[in-house]
Amino acid sequence: MADHITITKADGTWSVRAGGAVLGETNDALELREGDYDPVIYFPRGDIAMAFLDATEKTTHCPHKGDANYFSVVTKSRKLENAVWSYENPSEDVAEIKGHLAFYPIDEVAVEQI
C-alpha cells in the first residue's frame, strides 16, 4: 500500500443522507486516510440505495488509487452532480475499496456515524 494511505474498518454504524432521504446505512464501512486529507468513509455498494444514484461521464485519475467513476445523487428537489465516486478497479494497494462508494462532504449530503 502507498505508505501515505491507510484503510481500516470504520467503527460503528454509518449512514448517508441526501435531500431528506437515507441513501444507505452500514456496519461495514471503510475509512481511508490519505496523507493530510480528511478521512473518507467508503460504503459497500450493496448497502446503498443505488436507485438514488445516476452514473455520470466524469472520471478522474489518482496515481495511488486508480481511476474514479462518478455518480450524481437524485433527490426530490434536485440533482447533486458528481457527488459520489467509486474506484471500480482500484490499484492493488487499495483493493479493499473496490465495490465501495464515497460521498463528497457537501451541505446537501450528510455522512454520519450513528
TrEMBL record:
Q: Which Gene3D superfamilies match?
A: Domain of unknown function (DUF427) (2.170.150.40)
Protein name per UniProt: DUF427 domain-containing protein
* Domain DUF427 residues, every copy: 15-105
